[in-house]
Amino acid sequence: MAVNHISFSHAFLPITVFLLAVISSKTADAAINSPFCSRVDPQRKQLCNTVVNGAPTREVALANVLNAVKKETAPVAQEIANLPNTLPGSVGKEVKGLLREDCNRNLDSFNYNIARILEILENGATFDDNFLTWLNAMATSLHGCIDVLEMNELKSPQVQKYVDIATDYSTVSFCIVGARNITKM
């Protein structure tokens, strides 16, 4: 599992979100409706509620969310893979090469982590430290691409869109894991 160029703040944000979700679960049964999940964009929150609705367990709810993020990010992934070819001619070959390498590796890592989590869920998941490592890796695996862009003062709506989608779903995933149950979702 390779997760590259993760800054201190990037790496620990999902852990913080998870810890907050665990704390919130002491006072609320409904993970998606907990105050710590209210930071998710309302439209995304509605989508996640729809995806999670009717799931009998947290494990099924999480599998539903991960399958949804996979489906929604698929079209954007192709745009990111083509990102180096869309940059202005003034951007050097070295930077384009870095982006091509980092973005594609990050995308592979993101998809691999989702596949690994789904496999764990299928085999009877327990939300232990090992499981959270995979979830944390999924949540942070796209930041290498962002870092290369920022270091070179470049912006990409495609990358930002992908990261926004992944961040929203990651936040919801951590909230599900931190909930005591999902009966009121």
Walkthrough of the structure:
The chain has 8 helices and no strands. It has 185 residues and is mainly alpha-helical. The chain has a single domain (8-178), classed as Up-down Bundle (Butyryl-CoA Dehydrogenase, subunit A, domain 3). Helix 5 packs antiparallel against helix 7 (143-151). The protein is elongated and about 55 Å long. InterPro entries: Invertase/methylesterase_inhib (IPR035513).
Write the layout of secondary structure elements.
Blueprint lengths: L7 H18 L16 H11 L5 H24 L1 H4 L6 H30 L6 H12 L2 H9 L5 H22 L7
Helix pairs in contact: 1-6, 1-8, 3-5, 3-8, 5-6, 5-7, 6-8
State the main characteristics.
OLC1v1028359C1, signal, elongated, 185 residues, mainly alpha, Butyryl-CoA Dehydrogenase, subunit A, domain 3
Could you give a short description of this structure?
The chain has 185 residues and is mainly alpha-helical. It is built from 8 helices and no strands.
Q: Write down the Rg.
A: 17 Å
Largest sheet: none
In whole angstroms, the N-to-C terminal distance is 32 Å
| Unreliable parts | 1-9, 16-31
Q: Enumerate how many helices there are, as a single number.
A: 8
Q: Provide the residue-averaged pLDDT.
A: 70
CATH class: Mainly Alpha
Helix content: over 70%
Estimate the global geometry from the Cα principal axes: elongated
- Proportion of beta-strand residues: under 5%
- The structural class is mainly alpha
The counted number of beta strands is: 0
Domain tally = 1
Element-by-element helix/strand order: HHHHHHHH
What fold name stands as the CATH topology? Answer: Butyryl-CoA Dehydrogenase, subunit A, domain 3
Keywords: Signal
InterPro entries: Invertase/methylesterase_inhib (IPR035513)
Protein name: OLC1v1028359C1
